[in-house]
Amino acid sequence: MQTQINGITIAYSDQGNGLPIVMLHAFPLNRTMWAAQEKVLSSRFRIITIDLRGHGESDAPLWHYTLEQSADDVNALLDYLSIPQAVFVGLSMGGYILFAFYRKYAARVKGLILADTKAQADTVEGKEGRFQMAQTSYKKGPSAIVDTMLSKLLSPETIQTRPSLVQQVRTIIENSQISGIAGDLMAMAERPDSIPLLNHITCPTQIIVGELDQATPPSDARLMADHIPNARLAIIPNAAHLANMEQPEAFNHIVATFAQELSERIDSQ
Ligand code: MLT
Question: What is the atom index within ligand 1 of the atom nearest the CA of 118?
């Protein structure tokens, strides 16, 4: 499905009934990375997955991107769908966007699931790496960043033994638009440190991380769990950065348990 939001086309899927769960994807992927969550969780919850601006079937305008702007897109989509409040799942860049969303729209957040993400801003070297990646994809096309990204996103074992999953991720990256890739790299490089926000997060929060995640390792997840009041932490074995794709059953179980508890709490109020 598609709609016009903040001057561009935003694509999304909306399946199932019950407590709404909004899922924000990683960089440089799109909403199809949530297929295994959508399939299983939409039998119990209303699952909304969004192609963030710059990705998938949404427009990728050639302009300056910010994570706050993506948060504004999500907010406007929820207005359009008449959803006052939801549970939000953000994986990696999706998590960075959730911090921006929480700063502006905390009243909309029933619960937060922060997966394979981190609260710290980029280091100087991290920003330089983003600049280099933007130049490489601009000069040579998105396929030139696939191998670097794959080794960051998936575990070595997955890369060796699960060719169809590797191909799925490869195809998504290869089909990404340069404007979206460069726009998001700049947006992520400019994002603020969210550590000071953490102890102001008052909604129920679940943190998830793949035990083999090197991009946003378990130590980053523990830091968030230590600072967000009453946050829970789950570490998924045999998963790296895209834990929801590598270990969908474990990931779905954590999300379903968290959302079910929230639903029951809402029903008893
Ligand atoms: C992601 O998966 O969204 C990216 O790895 C985030 C990042 O580059 O910081």
Answer: 9
Flag whether the pTM goes above 0.85: yes
C-alpha closest to that of 58 among 246, 184, 191, 164: 184
Mean pLDDT of 225-247: 98
CA distance linking residue 147 with residue 129, whole number of Å: 15
Which ligand 1 atom sits nearest the alpha carbon of residue 116?
A: 2
- Nearest atom (ligand 1) to Cα of 25: 3
Higher pLDDT, 269 or 64: 64
Dist. CA 91–CA 103, nearest whole Å = 17
**DSSP β-ladder status, 109-115 and 86-91:** parallel
Q: Give dist(CA 97, CA 149) in Å, integer.
A: 20
Cβ atoms < 10 Å from Cβ of 191? 18
Distance between CA atoms of 152 and 171, rounded to whole angstroms?
16
In the reported structure, the alpha carbon of residue 153 is separated from the centroid of ligand 1 by a whole-number distance in angstroms of: 8
Reported confidence tier of residue 266, pLDDT bands at 50, 70, 90: confident
- Ligand 1 centroid–CA 11 distance in Å is 21
